[in-house]
């Protein structure tokens, strides 16, 4: 835009050139804010592109929740470890379920305190408060200081970027989104995830509904048949999940 404005002093530049440039900038900003895989505003870890072996990670958002217990039962049945991005206020409601997640060898990450749909318009300071509040809750319940953060809805923007720089968190995304909170048909959810399975990938699921529990068991059977090794995210991207 600046270059175009400068050029207009020497050459005739059509007004619609500015409009097109503005629309391009707006499109990229909206897309960059809503698609965490782009890393548009902040560095994100959405997979391990260098992984050649059949390794993949499963992640669950929005717990702990009563359904989390059923998810844990399935993971235990298949001896699989996953990563749970937990909401602060949900940990306060279900501390025992949160403790079970850790006791069974799974990783936990920070998924904000409120998970409000207004998170994307929070100030930098408000985002910092949300992250630190949840970190404090996790530390109180478990003694762990988490350094993984997954923003609600996968939204990123300059305020969130400044906040995680301040708190020192790694932003963890995904490259295989199940849409299990949107799609009702379990077969369609399963098909969507299976079609996107690839070495080094991170699958996004939610431990908040029975349909996801049902899909999870079928997905694990599929991954088993394809000789995939399901690992926690720290083993996939080689970044520690907790402060040492």
Automatic annotation (TrEMBL):
InterPro entries documented for this protein:
Glyco_hydro/deAcase_b/a-brl, NODB_dom, Polysacc_deacetylase_ArnD
Please verify whether the record's keywords include Ribosomal protein. Answer: no
Which UniProt keywords are listed?
Hydrolase, Metal-binding
UniProt superkingdom: Bacteria
Task: Tell me which Pfam families the record gives.
Answer: Polysacc_deac_1
Give residue ranges for domain NodB homology.
54-231
Looking up Gene3D superfamilies in the UniProt record yields:
Glycoside hydrolase/deacetylase
- Annotated protein name in UniProt: Polysaccharide deacetylase
């Amino acid at each position: 835009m600046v270059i175009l404005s400068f050029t207009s002093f020497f050459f005739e530049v059509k007004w619609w050139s500015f409009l097109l440039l503005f629309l391009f900038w707006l499109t990229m900003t909206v897309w960059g804010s809503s698609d965490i895989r782009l890393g548009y505003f902040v560095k994100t870890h959405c997979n391990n592109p260098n992984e050649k072996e059949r390794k993949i990670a499963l992640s669950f958002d929005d717990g702990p929740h009563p359904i989390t217990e059923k998810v844990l039962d399935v993971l235990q049945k298949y001896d699989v470890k996953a990563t749970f991005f937990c909401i602060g206020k949900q940990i306060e409601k279900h501390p025992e379920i949160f403790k079970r997640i850790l006791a069974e060898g799974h990783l936990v990450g920070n998924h904000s305190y409120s998970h409000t749909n207004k998170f994307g318009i929070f100030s930098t300071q408000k985002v910092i408060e949300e992250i630190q509040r949840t970190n404090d809750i996790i530390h109180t319940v478990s003694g762990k200081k988490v350094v993984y953060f997954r923003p609600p809805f996968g939204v990123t923007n300059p305020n969130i970027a400044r906040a995680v720089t301040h708190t020192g968190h790694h932003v963890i995304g995904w490259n295989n989104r199940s849409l299990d909170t949107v799609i009702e048909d379990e077969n369609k959810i399963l098909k969507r995830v299976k079609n996107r399975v690839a070495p080094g990938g991170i699958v996004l699921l939610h431990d908040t509904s029975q349909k996801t529990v049902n899909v999870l068991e079928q997905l694990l059977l599929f991954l088993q048949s394809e000789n995939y090794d399901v690992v926690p995210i720290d083993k996939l991207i080689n970044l520690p999940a907790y402060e040492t």
